[in-house]
Amino acid sequence: MVKLSKRLQHLADMVSKDTILADVGTDHGYIPIYLLETKKIQKAYAMDIGIGPLQRAKEHIAECGLGEYIETRLSDGVAALCPGEAKTILIAGMGGGLVMHILSQGEKVVAAAEELILQPQSEIERVREYLYQNGFVIDKEDMVFEDGKYYPMMHICQNRAEKKEFSYSTEEWQIIYRYGEHLLQEKHQVLYQYLLYRLEQYEQILSGLEKQQDTEAILARKAEVDKEISCIQLALSYF
Hints:
The chain has helices at about 5-15, 30-35, 50-65, 95-105, 105-110, 125-135, 170-180, 180-185, 190-210, 215-235, and strands at about 20-25, 45-50, 70-75, 90-95, 115-120, 135-145, 150-155. With about 240 residues, the chain is an alpha/beta fold. The protein has 2 domains: about 5-165, Rossmann fold, CATH 3.40.50; about 165-239, Helix Hairpins (Orthogonal Bundle). Strands 3-2-1-4-5-7-6 form a 7-stranded mixed β-sheet, sandwiched between helices. The radius of gyration is 20 Å and the shape is elongated.
């Protein structure tokens, strides 16, 4: 049986039982293989824009004898997927800008899915803002620390009867976009570790800046760092 890394295992755990999965940017195809081997899902589409990664996925799928259940498709985002073909769309391991591009370009396919699982590697704040501003409902979040890196991930449910009403201040939205509503509310310990790590980093930066002459550029940088520290301290108040 395929053994997943901590990051991939947490993503696989977010996938609903008995679903049909589209794994966008599948790379080696490990997640769909694991989910079929554990009989958690019915079927999967392993999709990638790269011929090389898709070929590797095909080879792994064949080695595991799962060619009947996992179909590989060369695809730019979800372009090779028809609306309704997949109940679950997983987009992980790519930059936040690309994640948002895939969601917007594949709007009809995305809208027809029951759930999305996203793990952007960058621009997390922008991705969360995009989701909230476009009516997506983030109902679960997780975060793992692996090989010296922090990986936030989110589950979006698209078949809820009612959309959630929000009553956050501008300041609260700022930290929700940055750090995640559910991670903050659940006092997620990996987020806590991340906040302490970032606070130490910014305090060191500020200490270095304090030793320099107050030029216009230095003052501007100090203001930026002060703002970051304030956001982290507000987030830490949840704990």
